[in-house]
Amino acid sequence: MAYDYDSAPTEAPDTPPLVKMNVNPYLPQRHINDHYDIVGFISSGTYGRVYKAVSKRPANGQAPIVKHPSGRTVEAFAIKKFKPDKEGAELQYTGISQSAIREMALCTELSHPALIHLVEIILESKCIFMVFEYAEHDLLQIIHHHHSLSTRGPIPASMLRSCMYQLLSGLLYLHQNWVIHRDLKPANIMVTSSGAIKIGDLGLARLFYKPLHPLYNGDKVVVTIWYRAPELLLGSRHYTPAIDLWAVGCIFAELLSLRPIFKGEEAKQDSKKAVPFQRNQMGKIGEVLGLPKKNEWPLLQSMPEYPSLNSVVVYNASVNRPVGLEKWFRNTVQGNGYAMPSNPPPADEALEFLRKLLEYDPLKRMTAEQALKHPYFVSGGQQAGQSGNGIGGVAGVNVKLPSWNCFEGLETKYPARKMVTKPVRPPRRPARAEFEGNTTHRDRIDSHIPHLTNPYENICMICSAPLTPPLYDTAPSIKQACNACNTIYAMDMSCALDLKQLWFCPAPACRAKNRNVLVLDVDCGLCAEALRDRDGVVDGVVLVRCGGCGPRRVHRSCWELDMVARKEEYQTEAWDLGLPARGPGSADVASPAASARRLNAPEGRVAQTDEPEQEDDARELDEQDPQRSGGHVTVKMDPDWLCNGCD
Amino acid sequence: MASNYWDSTQAKHWTFTKPELTEIRRNLTASNPGLATKHPLPDPRHINIYLQTHLQKLARRLNLRQQSVATAQIYLKRFYLRIEIRKTNPYLIMATALYLACKMEESPQHIRLVLGEAARLWPELHANETGKIGECEFAMISTLQSRLIVHHPYRILTEFGGLFGLSSEEMVLAGSVVNDCFVTDLPLLYPPHVMAIAAIFLAVVLRPAGQPAGLQAHSSSGPSSPAGVAALSAGAAQSAMAGIAGLKQAGPKLGKLVDWLAESRVEMESVVDAVQEFVSLYQCWEEYQERVVKEAVGRLTREGK
């Protein structure tokens, strides 16, 4: 039976008087664990965490069927758990963040086939759970898949066209409803297994009808740097939905070339809270398009950061000799492996389409409505049509609009979303001996790249400090290898983090021609795989500290896995969502401090960890009661939990 | 949604007919047997006047824009349609509604600031930690089923004001009438444009240009001086409503309004009903004594201790 919001009782007679809150605590009407079974952990970010779930099967009978308004059954769910504002200690009601309020209200209000479908919101145990329909893929994952070495090849033109068409349809709906998304990027655009595009993550989206204050006042920085429109980079106080169209242009370019078109470095906000000018990002745009000119963008001079524009050329001279969008497009299409009979390149209209999205002047930039009527969709795609995949049409014949299934006619199967599933038994933790002497580790590097030379064996190439051997020591080092000259060189972890934008190889013979550096080293303390992501930046890493042998880095996902295993060992309930166990009667009132700490404690990026925090952790280890307290099980954070190595 | 009221959650889930409202309220009382007799409360409209004017007071202390206040007032109305008022501390609900509405209208206020001002204004709040408002916020969002986007008559009022060429005085008056609609059930019954038209109608009919004010809306004169409506009698309004022919003579502006209404697809009965609702509200307001309501509400909060 489908859950219907409106048939939910307005107030059951036996509901405790929940609102006289000076006396009684807030009690949720629905409990997340009563209705959903978590099957895996998908990801975590600044906003919180996302889990995959299915409907819970009651002990006696069928799992309830949840219907989408269109009539289809929702098979699986993605549950987004918002991170509480304040980490650590016991959770408090601190007031819900603006971003969560926006997302809750907008997702409840909006409904469109190209928008992620919200099933329900559950407020429980001082946490917010938003239950969405699950989508198997997202554009970032699809880009990765095509980018990866084994499957390297372009995204088929028909799929590209369908993706863009659906994305723009959803965006038009948002804009017609006075909503600017403000965070469009490949990772936020979901793709279901049936090829439907779903715009997700409305955490930065807001209504812009007659705002009470300039949009800038509410949020100083919007849109992920690579997708940020030029008017935002130039500090515009009032901006329009056109910023979303710029992001769409960037996404389109990224789908074409499989890498971000304007991959700048974000200038960090300084302590004075002044928003810095994003010179590097502006330069990256300039490298392709040239810098904006006031005859092409009449209001350019009134932009607050207009004076800073001159400084871009000082740091990045290539903006004076821009590649030009046309050349960029031709190079990309040529270099990307489109082959005429089986995998035709995108039609030429695609270039014009891209040009109109990446238009500097927001007033001239194509709107979502115009984009949907662009020849690329209504008469384009001839070349795509010739492949006989049913999308587009052969020139002269009636042209079909793009399909609402972006996989239509394609053979490719994309891998399912990666997630950490509940293990049957705890993973084996390797003994310290296996890591001793660093042999397995060195062997692995050798098997990856043969004949390595390492001129920087024992000193950091940046700061010249002596390097202690990597892995499990207090000052872990990073090793990187140049793809071209096979030089492997080493640097201090902290130096490496500072230096991630230094993309050339430091080997003297190689310096001129290479920009491609691969982070090879620094392995996860649990799975012993290298800690790296697609950009070679160390991220998604959790620092786990061991009292005996110093801090250790592990993959976030491995850490989650280990947490799960640990929790199983200690037989805690609700392994996944971090809810206190609900006993009969006592309900949610007393969530043990320890369980809150357990969920929040060892998270955060490596670079942020500093001495005092570690001391805190150590103290916590001693103080925490490892045993049951008040009917709840707390996870014992003993040294063993943290370290595979020392006894 | 912001552009399309008819697709909004407000139209679909938070607009009712009069019999539906009566039924919901009857069920609410029935599901809490004994409470009503244990805590007798004055005329529900007087309670509304009390709550809404006090919400306005808090908003004024926080320097809030009317749009945020209006949203908070709607949250309050919807909330008490689902939860029996006698089970709540109305002061805490008011503070929470305002805190939430500010976030929703993109002009957030710090929770500590809202709590501080509310506690100073209402000693009966009995809350000295922000967690109380935070917890109440959960209850409120849950009760409102996270349908938090609200459509107000103000936007349409501005559009129509231009359309009918209202003077700025008339616009101010119409705006004040709209502010008063939150005391009535109108926002739960009709789409925002009905209230906007009713307000324009009242502003034009009852205050023809060049004449002294016949009507003073309450929110403009403040809750402490309910004498403003004295000049207005229900009879006058009803006779003005009596016939379209009669209305046309009332002036060119009204003529234009009436012509427009006849051509448009606005439900005239709703507008007439809204006008009457306003008129009877102002009559009711004359009998309003703040002290009586304050004491009754105060008893509720004491009971909660």
From TrEMBL, chain A:
Principal subcellular localisation of the protein: nucleus
Recorded GO CC terms: mediator complex
Residue ranges of the region described as Disordered: 581-647
One of the record's GO molecular function terms: metal ion binding
EC number: 2.7.11.22, 2.7.11.23
InterPro entries: CDK, Kinase-like_dom_sf, Prot_kinase_dom, Ser/Thr_kinase_AS
Enzymatic reactions: [DNA-directed RNA polymerase] + ATP = phospho-[DNA-directed RNA polymerase] + ADP + H(+); L-threonyl-[protein] + ATP = O-phospho-L-threonyl-[protein] + ADP + H(+); L-seryl-[protein] + ATP = O-phospho-L-seryl-[protein] + ADP + H(+)
One Pfam assignment: Pkinase
Keywords: Activator, ATP-binding, Kinase, Magnesium, Metal-binding, Nucleotide-binding, Nucleus, Repressor, Serine/threonine-protein kinase, Transcription, Transcription regulation, Transferase
Domain (Protein kinase) ranges: 36-377
Domain of life: Eukaryota
Subcellular location: Nucleus
Enzyme class: transferase
Annotated Acidic residues bias: 610-624
Record flagged with keyword Ribonucleoprotein: no
Family: Belongs to the protein kinase superfamily. CMGC Ser/Thr protein kinase family. CDC2/CDKX subfamily.
Protein name: Serine/threonine-protein kinase SSN3
Provenance organism: Recurvomyces mirabilis
Automatic annotation (TrEMBL), chain B:
Superkingdom classification of source: Eukaryota
Signal peptide residues on this chain, from the entry's feature table: none
One Pfam family linked to the record: Cyclin_N
Keywords, ordered alphabetically: Cyclin
An annotated Gene Ontology molecular function: cyclin-dependent protein serine/threonine kinase regulator activity
Example GO biological process: regulation of transcription by RNA polymerase II
Entry keyword Metal-binding: no
SMART domains assigned: CYCLIN
Domain Cyclin-like: 53-142
Family classification: Belongs to the cyclin family. Cyclin C subfamily.
Annotated protein name in UniProt: RNA polymerase II holoenzyme cyclin-like subunit
Organism listed in the record: Recurvomyces mirabilis
